[in-house]
Design brief:
Largest sheet: 5 strands, mixed
Order of helices and strands: HHEHHEEEE
CATH topology: Nuclear Transport Factor 2, Chain: A
CATH architecture: Roll
Low-confidence stretches: none
Shape: elongated
Distance between the termini: 61 Å
Structural class: alpha+beta
Helix content: 25-40%
Number of strands: 5
């Protein structure tokens, strides 16, 4: 008879939830820091990032991005140069073995390069997005396989988001 050790399962569950949340944090921090390597670390090679639900609501035509090299090139090129800050909250995770679905909010403030710290700069793009991500275990790390981003609300100038594209 095999006995189940609840403390081992709890420890693994806590570790998995931390690592899954870290994948989302690596994704958003990479955008804020313009860090290609960090963004790559958050995504599987066949990753798909679908911003169309969010960008379509604000009148932007932005394609679904895939695979990872396309995602990294497009997002680091468009968002990396901007003065941005992403804050991730309300993370909820459903884990099934080596796959999981994570839902969270990400509030993102965007200014043109160099304008972020300037009090007189008022042209910005502030959005509250809903993220739904399918993530997979890749060794000891979790990575995003598919991320769909939808906008809960938006204020500012959408053109700030494509100024560098």
């Amino acid at each position: 008879m095999t006995t189940h050790n609840p403390s081992e399962q709890t420890t693994q569950d806590i570790t998995d939830r931390y690592e899954i949340t870290d994948a989302i944090h690596r994704y958003t921090a990479a955008l804020d820091e313009g860090d290609s390597a960090l963004l790559e670390s958050s995504l599987t090679e066949d990753a798909v990032v679908d911003l169309t639900p969010a960008t379509g609501k604000i009148g932007l035509d932005f394609p679904v991005l895939s695979p990872r090299e396309v995602v990294v090139r497009a997002l680091i090129g468009a968002v990396g140069p901007l003065d941005t800050s992403h804050s991730v909250t309300n993370v909820r995770t459903e884990i099934t073995g080596d796959t999981a679905t994570v839902r969270c909010y990400a509030q993102a403030q965007h200014f043109l390069p160099g304008d972020g710290p300037r009090p007189e700069a008022t042209r910005h793009a502030l959005m509250m997005n809903r993220y739904v991500a399918d993530v997979v275990r890749d060794g000891q790390r979790w990575r995003i396989r598919r991320l769909v981003i939808d906008s809960a609300w938006f204020t500012g100038d959408p053109q700030v988001l494509v100024a560098m594209a």
